[in-house]
Amino acid sequence: MIIGIGTDICNIERIERTLERFGDRFRNRVFTEVEQAKAERRKDTAGTYAKRWAAKEACSKALGTGLRMGIAWKDMAVTNRRSGQPVMHVTGWAADRLAELTPEGHEAVIHVTLTDDHPWAQAVVVIEALPLSDEPSQAPAIRSSDARATP
Ligand SMILES: CC(C)(COP(=O)(O)OP(=O)(O)OC[C@H]1O[C@@H](n2cnc3c(N)ncnc32)[C@H](O)[C@@H]1OP(=O)(O)O)[C@@H](O)C(=O)NCCC(=O)NCCS
Question: In ligand 1, which atom is closest to the CA atom of 86?
Fold first, then answer.
């Protein structure tokens, strides 16, 4: 069953201006090392950051919290599989919120998709709760995608 859905659209030029104005203060506050490494080695640095910014906003909506002052942005982070497919990881407050949302006897899976077409970057996040099997060696309540994703 679907337990959360969120979307966001982000202006790449606004991110570009924020990067110029605030530099590392903005980078380090919002993006993980993995996200920064991906963006900085790409030609479209601002577009790569903008997609990840949109993903964080979309995820906060799917979690039902939306944007709050003092939010720990790095607790929602994107990596990519070898195929390029993005994967959303939640830690800290976002993982706590996901656990609250997840019905008993279920595990949560976060689906994320990103796109950009200058000057816009967009993300959609869907959170699905899957029933846990009765097998003794069942998966943890919140599936970690870390083992399946590469930076
Ligand atoms: C996936 C694909 C359709 C994206 O199309 P596009 O018009 O170039 O780019 P968009 O702006 O719409 O989307 C880009 C985002 O798509 C996502 N994406 C890339 N590969 C993906 C995949 N295999 N599955 C799902 N999403 C994917 C990524 O999130 C990417 O943004 P990011 O790299 O900053 O995370 C295109 O890259 C493609 O056909 N890839 C085929 C697989 C491939 O060539 N893989 C190369 C490594 S094996």
Answer: 29
Q: Which of 76, 103, 79, 104 has its CA nearest to residue 92?
A: 76
Q: Would you tell me how many other CB atoms lie within 10 Å of the CB of residue 18? A: 18
For residue 83, what are its two tokens?
A: 């195929």
Find the domain containing 13 and state its range.
2-148
CATH code: domain of residue 10: 3.90.470.20
Residues in the ligand 1 pocket, defined by CB under 6 Å: 48, 51, 80, 83-86, 114-116
**Residue of minimum CA distance from atom 2 in ligand 1:** 84
For 40-76, write each residue's pLDDT tens digit.
999 999 999 999 999 999 999 999 987 666 679 999 9
Number of domains in the chain: 1
Is pTM, for the whole model, over 0.85? Answer: yes
Alpha-carbon gap, residue 32 to 139, rounded angstroms:
26
